Every structure is written in structure tokens, then in C-alpha cells.
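I'd like us to work through together how a protein chain folds, taking it slowly. To get us started, please write out a protein record for me. Go ahead whenever you are ready, and we will take it from there:
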Amino acid sequence: MPQIVSVVGAVTSPNNGKWNSINDALNWHPVPELKVDWVMANAGPVAISFNLSVPMNGAIVTHLKLDGAVLPSTNVVVGNTAYAANVGTYYAVLPKGSHTVLLEYRTNSAFLFDPSSDFQASRLQVMSFDQ
């Protein structure tokens, strides 16, 4: 059986899940609430998927950071659009033990993320096969 851990930006979160972007364009910032900690009993494969859909009128770049290291192959760039939907999946084999993954972003646009809006969503999910 796989172990599945998911987090989402939800209206039940602090501040009703709303957050404002930091639009300095050059620096990476964690996406609020999109961090997963889990423990693998044995080494095994994992599938990590993410989604961040936001109102833009600019550009946004996202990537995953696994156990403190950026995974450059997970960069997703969406630009010059009114709405951005950054999605991706990463597959790896990890050793047994504790792991952390988070989604980071950088943008040149100011926006308000509001999960009560039907076109905005955020999700980070880990499925590990360690049993």
C-alpha cells in the first residue's frame, strides 16, 4: 500500500487561506501551506505532484525543494497571461527516513491567492511506496 500525504490551500486555513504574493521577481518564496513532511519506513519510489493556479497579469515560476535541495527539473514557467496554472509531477527513489518537500515560487506580479475563488487552487501531494 502506498503512503499518501496531501496539503491544499483551503478556506479553513488561517486567513481563510488567502495570501499575497511577494513580487520581487528574483527571489524564491515558499507557497504558503504547501509543505509536506513524511517518514519512509524503507527506501522506495515516490511520486510528488503539485498545482498552483493564481490570477497573474504577469509571470510566475515554481519549483520543488526536496530535503532542502532545489529540483531544477521541476521548474514550471507561466508568463504573460491573466491566469496561471503551474502543475507538475516528480518521480524519485528516496532512502528510508524523514523527508520534506515544499513548493516555491517567484513572480514579477502582485496577486492575491484566494482559494474560495473557483479558478484558484493549490495542492502538494506525496505518494511513497515504502512498505
In short: The two ends are 7 Å apart (CA to CA).
